[in-house]
Amino acid sequence: xxxxxxxxxxxxxxxxxxxxxxxxxxxxxxxxxxxxxxxxxxxxxxxxxxxxxxxxxxxxxxxxxxxxxxxxxxxxxxxxxxxxxxxxxxxxxxxxxxxxxxxxxxxxxxxxxxxxxxxxxxxxxxxxxxxxxxxxxxxxxxxxxxxxxxxxxxxxxxxxxxxxxxxxxxxxxxxxxxxxxxxxxxxxxxxxxxxxxxxxxxxxxxxxxxxxxxxxxxxxxxxxxxxxxxxxxxxxxxxxxxxxxxxxxxxxxxxxxxxxxxxxxxxxxxxxxxxxxxxxxxxxxxxxxxxxxxxxxxxxxxxxxxxxxxx
Length: 311
Description:
311 residues; alpha+beta; six-stranded mixed sheet; 9 helices; 17 strands
């Protein structure tokens, strides 16, 4: 859902941790806002804070805070910014900003803003962006909020499921796990599912298409064992720029301690550009085990491949 946001003020400061001063307009480039202390090659180039948050603070404390008083570059109205998520975008004319962080660590007594106001709401309700496309912004302009929509695909490899001898259960199992994860994370998504025979060429084409389409996530299930038709890891590795070995090694060790057969899986994980690829076994029990571990670090992986430092 797209939503319009009114810009009440644009603000600058020459030093970090200082209140910012309203200016007629700001110029944004790939380095951030020209003349602002936070400009530079990092992920928190531009800060935004909703005037609704400022007015609520004023009512609660009986004080008045000018625009820019909490160190925000852009003071907005009409949308609860802190409900947005990293990778969402704000657009105005040629300007395109990508949200990279919601809130931040408060530096307390070391911060001039904290010393002046006695409290700072930026750590809870401010958001930070990096500039993807530059331009100018001024008070009275409008930003369009565009949520990021994740696209992922599940590929089931099974001769018998493809031929209709039995229903595919592992593919729907991954879909169910991911639908739950996206719901918990409050992220928007589009899902796709394909069932293929255990054939190298068809599987390779499917992976190539997913990478070319820049899908965010690709999960495959089946073909990770030692049988003559088990080729999923061998093919998938050819489509990865680099592997992420640790997570699969962890799963094999953790569950192999209970069931030695689990250690025989050749499952792999890796990335191709900003596409994350996970090659999982074909049993429904294994899907539960693997997805439980993958989901724990999946958001951090997504931020990392998008060059967002979430530490």
